[in-house]
Write a structure and sequence with these properties.
The chain has two helices and four strands; from the N terminus they run H-E-E-E-E-H. By secondary structure, the chain is an alpha+beta fold.
């Protein structure tokens, strides 16, 4: 049976895994936003394809707890946006240019969700640290 100090360590480790996963998610979202208006480097080529992060849970045997990890980063298979821009170097023979399948509004919504999850994990770590400090203060007196 686990004692209180290992419960604190377990809570912090689980929250830390959430921080890592959300940080990875924010990195992928940032990459999507950064490439939202890029075009292909060759005439008629495909531009940047949006990436979608996934999460998975794993059993951490040292902690005897489920932790979250950033899973595979999958390409979004939705269609590219197409604009008629015959003067663009990325235009195909018909004058159409493919743009990434990135919607900035969707990305910002996902970023806000990732930020809230990240902050929730930071709050767990802060609360756990305060509880440890309070326990030490009680034991000292």
């Amino acid at each position: 049976m686990a004692n209180d100090s290992s419960d604190f360590a377990r809570s912090m480790a689980i929250a830390t895994s959430g921080l890592r996963a959300q940080a990875g998610r924010m990195r992928v979202i940032s990459e999507n936003i950064a490439n939202a208006d890029s075009t292909a480097s060759t005439s008629g080529g495909d531009p940047y394809r949006r990436k979608v992060p996934t999460f998975s849970s794993a059993l951490d045997r040292t902690l005897d707890a489920q932790v979250v990890t950033l899973g595979k980063i999958k390409p979004d298979q939705s269609n590219f946006r197409v604009k008629y821009e015959p003067s663009s170097p990325a235009a195909d023979a018909t004058g159409n240019v493919k743009y990434p399948n990135v919607n900035s509004v969707v990305e910002m919504t996902d970023m806000r969700d990732a930020q809230r999850s990240y902050e929730a994990n930071v709050n767990i770590i802060s609360a756990t640290r305060r509880m440890i400090q309070r326990t030490l203060d009680i034991l000292k007196s």
